[in-house]
Amino acid sequence: MQVSDKLIRPLTEAKYLNADNVSRYRCIMRIFFEHYEKLKYWLYQEEVYEEMIQDPFFADYRMEQCQQDLMMLTEWKNLNTIQDTKKVASIEEFKNKKYRYQMTEYSVEIERLVIRLENLFIEGASLEPTLLERIRRSVERFPEMGERDKSEVYTWWTDLNNDFVRLNQNYQDYIRDLNSVRAEEMMHTKEFLVFKDRLIEYLRSFIKGLQRNVGVIEENLRLQSEELKKQVFEKVIDYELSIPRMEIEVSKEMIEQKIQGRYQSIYDWFVENEGQENEAGKLFDATNDIIRRITRYAAQLSEKNALGANRKEEYRKVAELFLRCQNVEEAHKMSAMVFGMECPQHLAGELIRETDSMNIGVYEEQPMEITLKPRVRTYREKSRRSAIRESAEQKQETRRKLLEQQKKETEKLRALEVDGKIYFDKLPVLEPRIREILLKWLSDAMESADFSARTDDGRRYILDRSQAGENCVVHCEDGNFTMPKLSIVFQEEVG
């Protein structure tokens, strides 16, 4: 045995398991862990308190006690805390210090250990598309299980559950690691650039696995009849009851409840319920957010490295080039090339273009006026005092114009529909604004696992990709573009 500081130091993170008021501490940590599994890492004091008092056991629980418990858990390093300044509207609110709380890595692992002791099996962290494929194949075999013997059905059911537990736990751990403080710090280092591409490719591979398999799994789960499920689950129950167990009494009701709960967990993970996004969709969004964050950090690092480059050797090389010049005219040409006369720098501004066409030259654009301001701390613009103006009528007029514009756009979009469908290969010449709205609808649908989304006015639609292998040309007022032959199908709302 090697004695180290880590081995002999007190593990304060485990105090909440045996301290006074252990019932409160453990329940609070379990609330944090359950939200953590749902990818909600930060909680306010009010949110914790509301969940605590929902149980009759904590009917007399007070907000002051909740605040003290959170402070104690923070002191024991079970929770990280950060002051929330986003919703602060005054100095008084800032002084009151509204905090958000997050589980520490130690606490997450301790809760996992506790849950393992409560007979919940948990494994390590990775994103494996093969697990999704295994689950898809298992779900596709669901109908044939009605004809198999109970031992084969039990093996199939066990494999399905083990794969689902591994998938669920692995993605939670992996996403947790990528959202941790340590990962954030590493993403700001130069070493991160070395494996940035490999990490992005790994995440995109998993996203492709989600897109290929989740829709198939969802459709198969929806198609299973109650009679078939009852028949298959009866075989699983019969097999479990036939397993000899010493000193343990297992009733049929207990096994049935466990099986129904596990199946419902699988169903809720893959199937969207009453407009609520399923866990697969949340995982898809979380993974895309991580990819965007990684790309942003990498771009910032590259820019930082470029700004910090040593120009000494470059200037020496320029001086050598000038020494080689034969005459002044050649030196003038060299100067124009080196100092950017042929590639002048431009001032960026918020120019509102009349068209999105890339064929329009800069000289055809409308001129724009830019006011330069000194970039020094001591500079301050003169402000003119003016009386308070009543702008209610102006706001009302602006609102009226906006509503009128939206109404016109809606009418133009409705005119494009043919029997509740918009065919991109049959569209007339489009205005830039109408084209922008249609492309946004396509983008929203493509980001969804089932290729469905809603318009701004709440209409639900699905993207028909049955002819995506063919191309079509969409004609616009400012140009044409080629795209896959897609169509938007609006769905009738039920209820």
Considering the chains and any ligands shown, give keywords for the structure.
9 strands; three-stranded antiparallel β-sheet; four-stranded antiparallel β-sheet; extended; Arc Repressor Mutant, subunit A; alpha+beta; 4 domains; 17 helices; 495 residues
Which helices and strands, and how do they pair?
Elements: H1 5-8, H2 22-37, E1 43-44, H3 45-53, H4 63-75, E2 79-83, H5 91-95, E3 99-103, H6 105-117, H7 129-140, H8 150-178, H9 181-187, H10 192-223, H11 226-242, H12 252-270, H13 279-307, H14 312-323, H15 328-338, H16 392-415, E4 421-423, H17 432-446, E5 452-454, E6 460-464, E7 471-476, E8 479-484, E9 487-490
Antiparallel strand pairs: 1-3, 2-3, 4-9, 5-6, 6-9, 7-8
Q: Can you describe what's shown?
A:
The chain is α+β, with helices and mostly antiparallel strands and 495 residues long. It has four domains: 7-113, Arc Repressor Mutant, subunit A; 121-269 and 278-303; 309-334, no CATH class; 406-490, no CATH class. Helices cover 54% and strands 8% of the residues. The protein has 17 helices and nine strands. It has helices at residues 5-8, 22-37, 45-53, 63-75, 91-95, 105-117, 129-140, 150-178, 181-187, 192-223, 226-242, 252-270, 279-307, 312-323, 328-338, 392-415, 432-446; strands spanning 43-44, 79-83, 99-103, 421-423, 452-454, 460-464, 471-476, 479-484, 487-490. Strands 4-9-6-5 form a four-stranded antiparallel sheet, with helices on one face. A hairpin with a 5-residue loop joins strand 5 and strand 6. It is extended and about 100 Å long.
